[in-house]
Amino acid sequence: MRIKAAEKIPWWTPNLIVAGLSSLLLRQAIKYGSTALISLNCSTWYTIAFLLHIPYILILGFLLCGIVEHVGYYFRRQATEKPGCLPSILPKVCVQLPMYNEQAVAERAIKAACTIDWPLESLEVQVLDDSTDPEARFLVEKVCAEMVSCGYNCQLMRRQKRSGYKAGALEVGRHQTEADLIAILDADFVPGRNYLRRAVPYFFDDNGCFINDLALVQTQWGHLNQDESNLTAAQSLWVDDHHSIQMSWRSATWGFVNFTGTAGIWKASAIQRAGGWRSASLVEDCELSFRHLFAGFNTRFVKEIVVPAELPDTYTAYKAQQKRWTQGWVQLQRLHLRRLLLSYKTGPLRKLHLIYHITISWQWCLWGLWLLVQPYAVANSMWLGELGIIIGAVVYAVPSLLYLLFFTAAASFETRHTYNMKRSFKTFTQLFYRLLPYAILNTAMLPHQFTSFSEGLFGAMDTEFERTPKTASVSGEKISKNKQAKVKVHLPYVAAEVFFFFYNVAWTLVFLRDGKFTSACSSCAVALAVATIFWFYGDHVDRRLFVIPYSPSTTKIHREESGSEDFVATNLREIV
């Protein structure tokens, strides 16, 4: 769906309008208190109550789709994916490593890619280095030269201008290879030596012939630092759920998953047929995936093959990553939602799920709107809690709580491949605890994600690709900060978080005045979550609230034995 960005007004103007309208609702509640302005049971009351509940009704729809995916997993995709047979003459594979000032992880990534187990005459590694930092450029040159001297086909490619960002680099590299398959790995991913031996067979049938309509084999993301902090633990939960459960089910049921930007292998001819890489949105990986969908290709996900990677270890870096992803997904809708709705031919159930798939970022917008209007609905008795506390709990609390518990349990129980450990009650509880930091993090991220959604919907399409800085974080090791890493912090995002905090503080006071203590606790919890995460602004340069110096301990992290240490150590040893 193409929505032209306004040229005369800033993209954040709708945010100001929403904030203004919300403030009017708050002002009315402060002025009139709990006195109902409209008589109960009249048509006007029902109309306003319904309008206020539209965001929540749509949220319930998204939760239902999520439940379908999780329940469906146990019927359609719990079994192990079966690979085909490799042909006698192995296909040529090109491993692309897009980089931009990755001095913290560049050496590890290049060596891991070059030492993958595959015939040297059929393997080439393209280091697509757009670095501007002299130290990073020198390091990449040194490591590439070292790999070449060891007999590996390691090609260093640089561009005069960083046009198209990551997508532009991948497209330039694609035209410089004659490989049959192209594997793409971000700089913080550490593949095992047997990565290609395990993943490439999925492109072939039992007779060793290419599966013609298969364009992509996407593998599972693992983690190098999932237990470094509550932040990385929370991220590991939703990544595990998205990969182990959601993508597994989507692959088995509909034959389509989007490329996640890394840890995947493309058929080179399929990329060519789909028109190559484009920098039309900030999620070039998903954009290419949907063009393959429209071209009639299938894509495949294999949860049994895990490539561990680094999770952002600072809140400021995590916000930058989430801004790019949420904004990019909305841009993707501007590009392809119209075609999906009107011209793409497929079954009704598959189309319904694909619509859910491409519009999933709307959940942030809906949750943000709901938390803005819900206090007003409660204050003016325009909610079902007026019929009794049990009914209110069942309608407003139970659906989200059940979904949270269900997906956390499933993600914690079905990640034996990710953490290379046997399923037991002990390991389950060690993973299940992530529910609490996840809930706090997602609540606190609402104003930031709401703003990302607005910029994606109303902002320009040709925005800067802001990379997520890497620090070579590995669980159980000292944290190696990349002092060169820079993260941009944007004023509209900070302003949204400040407004959301004071808005919920004000509603807390209103509810306390009116004797609605349960609602006061709810608004207070939201305000505290936002304030807690806001405190960490600047943590990528060891500061708090942007300016307060803070020097965290870099001593070794002690944790209970979970099996993940052996998995990480094994993958790192394979590089040597």
Could you walk me through the main structural features you see in this protein, from its secondary elements to its overall organization?
- This protein is 53% helix and 9% strand.
- It is of the alpha/beta class.
- The protein has a 7-stranded mixed beta sheet, with helices on both faces. The chain has a two-stranded antiparallel ribbon with strand order 8-9.
- Strand 1 (93-99), helix 3 and strand 2 form a beta-alpha-beta unit.
- Residues 476-480 and 554-576 have low confidence and may be disordered.
Give the secondary structure arrangement, pairings included.
Layout lengths: L12 H20 L10 H34 L16 E7 L6 H9 L8 E7 L4 H16 L4 E4 L7 H10 L6 E4 L10 H5 L14 E10 L6 H25 L9 E4 H7 L9 H11 L3 E12 L5 H28 L5 H11 L3 H18 L9 H25 L2 H4 L5 H8 L2 H10 L1 H13 L32 H23 L3 H18 L8 E2 L3 E2 L14 H10 L3
Parallel strand pairs: 1-2, 1-4, 2-3, 5-7
Antiparallel strand pairs: 4-6, 5-6, 8-9
